[in-house]
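Need a sequence for this fold. Nothing fancy.
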């Protein structure tokens, strides 16, 4: 049984399609990652409420943090954040 999933590249076409499947199957999302599309990532964060959101750069991570400051979501950036998202256990 799947406890939750991490979606790498959530704002890209495959990531968005994966989120459509997640909507249909009602699977919880643990982590989302994105490159530089802060606006779409903020929308995804508000919808899926992951525990972790990761952006590619420190600047975009700070911009995302500002947009979702009211949510209990940890924001990271870069390779370290990607590793955290990919290795989350639940």
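Here you go.
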């Amino acid at each position: 049984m799947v406890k939750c999933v991490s979606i790498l590249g959530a704002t890209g076409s495959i990531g968005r399609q994966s989120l459509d499947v997640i909507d249909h199957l009602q699977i919880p999302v643990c982590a989302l990652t994105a490159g530089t599309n802060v606006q779409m990532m903020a929308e995804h964060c508000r919808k899926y409420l992951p525990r972790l959101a990761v952006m590619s750069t420190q600047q975009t991570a700070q911009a995302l943090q500002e947009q979702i400051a009211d949510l209990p979501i940890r924001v990271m950036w870069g390779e370290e954040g990607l590793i955290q998202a990919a290795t989350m256990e639940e």
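For context: The chain has a mean pLDDT of 96.
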